[in-house]
Each structure stands twice: as structure tokens, then as C-alpha cells.
């Protein structure tokens, strides 16, 4: 009888250890996924910043006049607006740019 009880306790302890290991592995996997998501987000942010820099560089270095730059931006906005979530994209882009400008100033 004692052997049966001690075996049951041992199995219970082993099961607890196994369950704890599974939980630890699950948490580690979630942490790794979160880190990967952060890295992907950072890559997207850097890519967007580089694209924006390329887009405004001609205006900033004076090779394109302000009125031509504004006209080009308006044409690009119209092109985006014609896409399937165009209005949503334009509002989001405009809001983000306004917030960044306010923060910069």
C-alpha cells in the first residue's frame, strides 16, 4: 500500500514537473514571438523612414520647387485614395504625419 501511495506521489511530482516544463516552454515561445514581432515592426519603421527620406529629398535639397513637390504629393494621395482602403490609409498617414510634426515642433 505504501508503495502504491509513494508511486502515485512520484508520478504526481513527475507530472507536475512535466507540466511546469511545458508551461516554461510555452512562455519562452511567446517571448521569442514577441521579440520577433518587435524586430519586424522596427524593420517596417526603418523601411518607411528610408522611403520617406527618399521621397522628400528632392524638395529638401532644392532640386524640386515647393509647388511641384506639393503637386506630386497630391497626385500620390489621389493614387492611394483610389485603392481599396484608400480613405483609411490617407487619414492614418495624415494623422501620423501631423502628430510627428507637432512633436518635432
Give an overview of the whole structure.
This protein has three helices and no strands. It has 105 residues and is mainly alpha-helical. The protein is rod-shaped. The mean pLDDT is 87.
Structure summarized in a few sentences:
The chain is an all-alpha fold.
Layout of secondary structure:
Layout (H helix, E strand, L loop, with lengths): L1 H59 L5 H16 L4 H19 L1
Helix pairs in contact: 2-3
Query: What's the total helix number?
Result: 3
What is the overall silhouette? rod-shaped
Q: Evaluate the radius of gyration.
A: 28 Å
| Main sheet properties | none
Mean pLDDT, to the nearest integer, reads: 87
User: H/E element string?
Assistant: HHH
Strand composition percent: under 5%
The end-to-end span amounts to 79 Å
Q: Could you name the ranges where pLDDT drops below 50 across 5 or more consecutive residues?
A: none
Which percent range fits the helix content? over 70%
**Number of E-type strands:** 0
Helix-strand category: mainly alpha
Amino acid at each position: 500500500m505504501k508503495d502504491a501511495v509513494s508511486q502515485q506521489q512520484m508520478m504526481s511530482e513527475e507530472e507536475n514537473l512535466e507540466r511546469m516544463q511545458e508551461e516554461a516552454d510555452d512562455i519562452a515561445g511567446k517571448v521569442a514571438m514577441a521579440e520577433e514581432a518587435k524586430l519586424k515592426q522596427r524593420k517596417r519603421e526603418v523601411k518607411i523612414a528610408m522611403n520617406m527620406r527618399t521621397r522628400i529629398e528632392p524638395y529638401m535639397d532644392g532640386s524640386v520647387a515647393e509647388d511641384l513637390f506639393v503637386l506630386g504629393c497630391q497626385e500620390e494621395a489621389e493614387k492611394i485614395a483610389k485603392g481599396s482602403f484608400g480613405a483609411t490609409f490617407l487619414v492614418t498617414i495624415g494623422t501620423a504625419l501631423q502628430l510627428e510634426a507637432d512633436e518635432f515642433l
